[in-house]
């Protein structure tokens, strides 16, 4: 036999490393160790198993050709030995041994290695609040928890669920409970918005509105202070503002690396507990590699290290480990944080930094927002997708991109394209000129992403002045805050009429786009006009027209009312 390779952890990065190295080194003796009896499953599919979209948990463990990835599969199909129900107790780096214990029998043995790979993943955080250990309080840590949740639902034991945490997992689980099972579901998020740090507040607000419309109650800026039970079972969640009855609680408040084994072995671990690796994913011991949710990954944009718990990254890292084990020098560049998430009939996605995150990192960041058609406007299935680009005004580098739209590939395509540009350190000029595939059923001739980059170019060059969505909404809630502002509505008079009637002609001016050049002299010179249309495109054009006529007292509402109407504002006409 060839090189002895031992892999601790059998969910994503570990199996990928094992299979890759066996393809490159067929004579290698590869052993996977995992304390669970279920291995190599798609953890990101757990919410869809709970919802019923995936009917059987085995589908999460099956290959695309319908073979279950278990011990027999790995041995017969891949030539890899998988030891399940086996816990790794310690690593002897000097002797190159891993001490393991059979969980069922208690028998211990030492397994020798030439190279060791640590893919121990991450464990979910548990809030330090009373009642966190009650029966019926779950974290989404493994497939067993998902099976237990679904069994309770199927038995009719669950009618009310509280999800603590408004991140991706929390929202996906809330949808799972509500969509198929019709369970009364509430999300609690202690930050001021859902999806904190991942998307900007207005994109989060569009998502929140859609969740509310789909039957999920959402409370932001509110933390769970206690979980109460009866006879040892959960029955309610208490916050400083309210009490929520619950038959089941899901705690989805982030994860932390399982790095105790590495720490005990003397390997370098970051202050946050993530295993430190180099570009080849070697730890501080060159004979030991690490990959997946347990490692510290460099953010390509900021250069800083952090945990990056994503199945897509774990599989990519596993392949890189396999390459390096086989002597193929392969480097891991890092990540930029790309994701997409389904929420009922909509999707939300982002890559790179949000505007708040970019500003916090010290970038001279700005953002532009558009509401573009995802395909030719004349095509029957056309839909509007709000897009945002975050960029550095000094270097013009693209720092991030966000999208919101219907459950299709439209948002995904733009985010993936933006991610490719960001990952290469590209600029808004690169994004503006990026060649995108075009046919009316799929895109517009000038793609939505190209168009958004063009808006960013206009802002960077000083050809665009805008009012932010937050500033506009604050003004709508309190006109006295900006008494010198008035709205200039470019939409058809039939669309603008209800606003004129409600807010008076002094505050709401209706001049259709087609009439501006003939009627510009009617516009006030002593007021700042907030130019409004559906998408912001006509507004930007009219800003230039008004500037030409000497009426420079104007600001454009980026994204227009296509963005605003998705945010569930109280003043929007029924």
UniProtKB/TrEMBL annotation:
PROSITE patterns: RHODANESE_3. Keywords: FAD, Flavoprotein, Oxidoreductase, Redox-active center. The keyword Flavoprotein applies. Transmembrane segments: none annotated. The keyword Transport does not apply. Its cofactor is FAD. GO terms for molecular function: oxidoreductase activity. It comes from the Bacteria. Residues 515-572 form the Rhodanese domain. Pfam families: Pyr_redox_2 (PF07992), Pyr_redox_dim (PF02852). Gene3D superfamilies: FAD/NAD(P)-binding domain, Rhodanese-like domain. InterPro entries: FAD-bd_OxRdtase, FAD/NAD-bd_sf, FAD/NAD-binding_dom, FAD/NAD-linked_Rdtase_dimer_sf, Pyr_nucl-diS_OxRdtase_dimer, Rhodanese-like_dom, Rhodanese-like_dom_sf. Belongs to the class-III pyridine nucleotide-disulfide oxidoreductase family. This is FAD-dependent oxidoreductase. It comes from Thiovibrio frasassiensis.
